C-alpha cells in the first residue's frame, strides 16, 4: 500500500443536488482523510488547465460550460492507494454504466442525463493528482 493524495471535485450537479455531505461521508467511511476542502467557482483558466488532456474533443466545450455552471467543492484526500480507491468509489465515467454501490451508480441520474453530469472528479494517477492539486490549491 502506498500513501497517496488525490484531487476530488464535487461537480456543479452534485453541489446543486445537495450531495456534498454524502460524497464526503463516503470518502471518510472508506478511511481517507480530507486534507483540504473548499467551495469555489471554477475559472476558465483553471478548467482549461484541469482538463487539458481533453481539449479539442467534441465534449470539451459542453464539459467546461457545465463545470462553470455553479459552485463546486474541491478537496484533497489522503490515504493508502486513494487514487485508484476513489475512482473505484466514484464508479464508471458514465453513470448509466456505473456499478451500484458507487457514487455515480447510486446517485447518478439516468433521466435526461449528460455524461458530464457525473457528480464527481477524481485524479487518475499520482502525476495528475499533483498537477491538479497545484491548479486548485
Ligand atoms: P473521468 O471523469 O471518469 O476521469 P474522463 O477523464 O475520461 O473521465 O473525462 C472527463 C469528464 O469529461 C468526464 O467526467 C465526463 C466528460 N466526458 C468524458 N467522456 C465523455 C463523452 N464521451 N461524452 C460526454 N462527456 C464526456
Ligand atoms: Mg479523468
TrEMBL record:
Its cofactor is Mg(2+). GO terms for cellular component: cytoplasm. It is an enzyme of class 2 (transferase). It catalyses: a 2'-deoxyribonucleoside 5'-diphosphate + ATP = a 2'-deoxyribonucleoside 5'-triphosphate + ADP; a ribonucleoside 5'-diphosphate + ATP = a ribonucleoside 5'-triphosphate + ADP. The keyword Cytoplasm applies. It comes from the Bacteria. Keywords: ATP-binding, Cytoplasm, Kinase, Magnesium, Metal-binding, Nucleotide metabolism, Nucleotide-binding, Phosphoprotein, Transferase. GO terms for biological process: CTP biosynthetic process; GTP biosynthetic process; UTP biosynthetic process. The keyword Kinase applies. ATP binds at residues 11, 59, 87, 93, 104, 118. GO terms for molecular function: ATP binding; metal ion binding; nucleoside diphosphate kinase activity. Residues 3-137 form the Nucleoside diphosphate kinase-like domain. Its EC number is 2.7.4.6. Its main location: cytoplasm. The active site is at 121 (pros-phosphohistidine intermediate). Homotetramer. Major role in the synthesis of nucleoside triphosphates other than ATP. The ATP gamma phosphate is transferred to the NDP beta phosphate via a ping-pong mechanism, using a phosphorylated active-site intermediate. This is Nucleoside diphosphate kinase. It comes from Dermacoccus nishinomiyaensis.
Amino acid at each position: 500500500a502506498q500513501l497517496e493524495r488525490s484531487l476530488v471535485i464535487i461537480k456543479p450537479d452534485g453541489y446543486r443536488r445537495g450531495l456534498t455531505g454524502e460524497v464526503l461521508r463516503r470518502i471518510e467511511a472508506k478511511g481517507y482523510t480530507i486534507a483540504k476542502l473548499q467551495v469555489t467557482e471554477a475559472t476558465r483558466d483553471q478548467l482549461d488547465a484541469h482538463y487539458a488532456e481533453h481539449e479539442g474533443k467534441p465534449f470539451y466545450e459542453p464539459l467546461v460550460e457545465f463545470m462553470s455552471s455553479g459552485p463546486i467543492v474541491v478537496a484533497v484526500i489522503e490515504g493508502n492507494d486513494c487514487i485508484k480507491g476513489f475512482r473505484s468509489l466514484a464508479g464508471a465515467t458514465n453513470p448509466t454504466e456505473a456499478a451500484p454501490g458507487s457514487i455515480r451508480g447510486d446517485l447518478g441520474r439516468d433521466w435526461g442525463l449528460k455524461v458530464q453530469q457525473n457528480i464527481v472528479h477524481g485524479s487518475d494517477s499520482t502525476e495528475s493528482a499533483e498537477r491538479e492539486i497545484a491548479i486548485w490549491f
